[in-house]
Specification:
With 161 residues, the chain is α+β, with helices and mostly antiparallel strands. Helices cover 34% and strands 21% of the residues. It folds into 2 domains: 39 residues; 88 residues, Alpha-Beta Plaits (2-Layer Sandwich). The strands form 2 sheets. It has a 4-stranded antiparallel beta sheet. Strands 5-6 form a two-stranded antiparallel ribbon. Helix 2 packs across helix 3. The longest helix is centred in the N-terminal third of the chain and has 13 residues. The radius of gyration is 21 Å and the shape is extended. The termini are far apart. 12% of the residues are buried.
Amino acid sequence: MVKKVLKLLLEGEVVRTDQMASIIGVEPAEVEAALAELEAERVLLGWRPVMNPKAIAENEVQALIEVSIVPERDGGFNRISERIARFDQVDTCYLMSGGYDLMVIVRGANLLSVATFVSEKLSTLEPVQATATRFMLRCYKIDGFLIEQPEEESDRPAVSP
């Protein structure tokens, strides 16, 4: 039951509990119980709509920051990663393999606010060795949703080799 409810949620449609019950073929109370179980087990962490970035904050900026850190003797990467993740500016924080250790996505009112966060808060943490900031200029797709709907194919001129 829980997996069926989770599958419906992950498919991205807005579905009420009574609709989920109808789709799965159970009573709404069973769906509500499954949702409560998903929340209690911290599988379902919250409910969030997918927003078009252009429509919600005209001047807001996002940046992807690559962070190289020195792992701690007893905590590895966890302690410093969790500390970085707690900053209000941080939307997302991943431990990565490859050329850097953390990928941190931050949000700010403008370029200066993100730059100030990086220079005054993030890079001053002792385990942080280096940062590389990349500002996101335009979003084409987010969480599986295209931002702009493609034009009809028939409106395009034919391309010949």
